[in-house]
Design a protein that fits this description.
single chain, alpha+beta, 8 strands
Length: 172
């Protein structure tokens, strides 16, 4: 089995996901992991794909050439030496919101790093002057009590509201 990481982006419009997924399906690739979202009018796709057949990153990009030209997509692909499936036992979902200002992402992410939590997903959105950040963070150890205590301090420093909940990790 071979695994590849693939990143594509271009101006958001209908049909991008269908076109890309069709080309990958026709190539016999399986989508293992994905993130697809619109960022400021651009549509971004990040995928981990697998193939049971021998194939190269260059062949994948060649198969995507037509859809890439049709949607004016920038594309990059590389083979992964190994695929690592995380085994975190504790998953936390954080919601941070407040008036938009520089330093919110840095303040929260550095606090999570200091506590030894790994960010597995982070999304932000501006809604007028309101800044909203959604984070999924993981840890092998139970950090809920310490995380809540540190986030209370961070709320004061950054002038934001923060909520956190531990989620059951469904990975096997």
């Amino acid at each position: 089995m071979k695994f590849f990481i693939l990143s594509l982006f271009g101006k958001d419009r209908p049909g991008i996901v269908a076109g890309v997924s069709k080309a990958l399906f026709e190539l016999g690739l399986n989508l293992e992991d994905s993130s697809m979202t619109r960022l400021n009018g651009e549509f971004t796709i990040m995928l981990v794909v697998s193939s049971k057949e021998p194939i190269s990153a260059e062949e994948i990009l060649k198969a995507l050439e037509e859809v890439g030209q049709r949607y004016e997509l920038f594309m990059v692909c590389r083979e992964l030496e190994e695929v690592v499936y995380p085994k975190a036992r504790h998953v936390y979902r954080l919601v941070v919101f407040g008036s938009d200002k520089p330093g919110i992402v840095y303040g929260v992410s550095s606090k999570l790093a200091e506590l030894g939590l790994n960010i597995s997903d982070l999304r932000t959105e501006k809604r007028g002057d309101l800044y909203v950040m959604l984070i999924e963070a993981e840890s092998d150890a139970d950090m809920e009590e310490e995380l809540r205590r540190e986030l209370e301090r961070l709320k004061e420093e950054l002038g934001v509201e923060v909520s956190v909940e531990e989620e059951e990790d469904i990975r096997l």
